[in-house]
From TrEMBL:
Lineage, broadest ranks: Eukaryota, Metazoa, Chordata, Craniata, Vertebrata
Annotated protein name in UniProt: Olfactory receptor
Name of encoding gene: OR11L1
Family assignment from sequence similarity: Belongs to the G-protein coupled receptor 1 family.
Gene3D superfamilies: Rhodopsin 7-helix transmembrane proteins
Residues passing through the membrane, by range: 25-48, 60-80, 100-119, 139-157, 192-225, 237-259, 271-291
Length: 310
C-alpha cells in the first residue's frame, strides 16, 4: 500500500443511483419479489416436511434448495432494499467480506444442488427399475451433505483473497452488493493472481456443474423421445423444459459474470445480470420445481382442505 494513504474501513454501495426517479418503484418491486420468494420457499419446506408422500429423494433435494434460496436471496435483497430506501448504503469492510462469503457459499451450493437434482431426474427417468437402489435415502443424504460442504469450502478462497487486497482509493462500489468484480476494480494492489484464481474456481464450479446438468438432461430427452404416448412425451417435456430454462438462466448469467479473464461489461449491465441470479431465479425455482408438479399440488390441496375442516 502506498505510504500516507489510509485504508478503506467501509464501502459505499451505489446501487441503482442512475435510476433515482425509479427508486420507489424498484423498492416496491424488489420487496414484493422478496416476499413471494421467501413465502413460496417456506411453503415448499412446510409441505414437503409434513407430507409423507413427499419424502422421496427428489423432494429432499427440493426442500434443501428452498432452504438455500431463502438464505441466498436474504444475503442480497435486504441490503438492496435499504440501498433503494436511503439512496445509497454504507457497509463496513467486515460486513462486506461476510456478505461476499455467504454469496459465494450459497451460490456454489446451489450449483451443486441443481446438478444433483438433474442427476436424480436422470436416474428416475432413464433407469426407473434401478432408481431405488441408485438413489437410496442414504445416497441422497450424502449427496446433499457433499453439496453443502463443498459450498462452504468454495466460499472461503475468494472472500479470503479479496480481504487480503489493499483498498486505499475510492470506497464507492458501483453495485448493489459486495460482488467480486467491482471489489477487484477498487483495489489499489495487483489483482492478477486473485482474478485468475477466481476465474479458474468459477470454471471448476459453474462450468462443470452446468455441463453435468446438461448431460443429465440430454439423456433425459433421449429417453423421453422413446415414450410411445404423445401426451406422455409432452407432459414430461413441459416439466423438464421448465427446469432446464431456470437452470440455463441461472448458470448462463453466473457464467457471463464470473467465467471471464477480464471485465468487458459495463457496471449497469452487470447489475441487470446480477438481478437475474440473486433475485429472479430464487423466485422462479419454487414456481417451476413445485407448482408445475402435480404431486406437490395435490399435497398442498390436501393440507389446505385439512386446515379448512379443522
Amino acid at each position: 500500500m502506498p505510504p500516507n494513504v489510509s485504508s478503506v474501513t467501509e464501502f459505499q454501495l451505489l446501487g441503482f443511483q442512475n435510476l433515482l426517479e425509479w427508486q420507489t418503484l424498484l423498492f416496491a418491486i424488489f420487496l414484493f419479489i422478496y416476499f413471494l420468494t421467501v413465502t413460496g420457499n417456506v411453503v415448499i419446506i412446510a409441505v414437503v416436511s409434513q407430507d409423507q408422500r413427499l419424502h422421496s429423494p427428489m423432494y429432499v433435494f427440493l426442500k434443501h434448495l428452498s432452504f438455500l434460496e431463502i438464505w441466498y436471496t436474504s444475503t442480497i435483497v435486504p441490503l438492496l432494499l435499504a440501498n433503494l430506501f436511503s439512496h445509497g448504503q454504507a457497509i463496513s469492510f467486515p460486513a462486506c467480506m461476510t456478505q461476499l462469503y455467504f454469496f459465494v457459499f450459497f451460490g456454489a451450493t446451489e450449483c451443486f444442488l441443481l446438478a444433483m437434482m438433474a442427476y436424480d431426474r436422470h436416474l428416475a427417468i432413464c433407469s426407473p427399475l434401478h432408481y431405488s437402489s441408485l438413489m437410496s435415502p442414504e445416497i441422497c443424504t450424502k449427496l446433499v451433505a457433499v453439496s453443502w460442504l463443498t459450498g462452504v469450502g468454495t466460499g472461503f478462497l475468494p472472500s479470503l483473497m479479496i480481504s487480503k487486497l489493499d483498498f486505499c482509493g475510492s470506497n464507492q462500489i458501483n453495485h448493489f452488493f459486495c460482488d467480486l468484480p467491482p471489489l477487484m476494480q477498487l483495489s489499489c494492489s495487483s489483482v492478477y493472481i486473485t482474478r485468475m484464481v477466481i476465474f479458474i474456481l468459477s470454471i471448476a464450479v459453474l462450468c462443470i456443474c452446468f455441463f453435468l446438468t446438461l448431460v443429465s438432461y440430454v439423456f433425459i430427452v433421449s429417453t423421453i423421445l422413446r415414450i410411445p404416448s404423445a401426451s406422455g412425451r409432452m407432459k414430461t417435456f413441459s416439466t423438464c423444459g421448465s427446469h432446464l430454462a431456470v437452470v440455463t438462466i441461472y448458470y448462463g448469467t453466473m457464467i457471463s459474470m464470473y467465467v471471464r479473464p477480464s471485465d468487458h461489461l459495463s457496471p449497469e449491465i452487470n447489475k441487470i445480470i446480477s438481478v437475474f441470479y440473486t433475485v429472479v431465479t430464487p423466485l422462479l425455482n419454487p414456481i417451476i420445481y413445485s407448482l408445475r408438479n402435480q404431486e406437490f399440488k395435490d399435497a398442498v390441496r390436501k393440507k389446505c382442505n385439512y386446515e379448512r375442516v379443522r
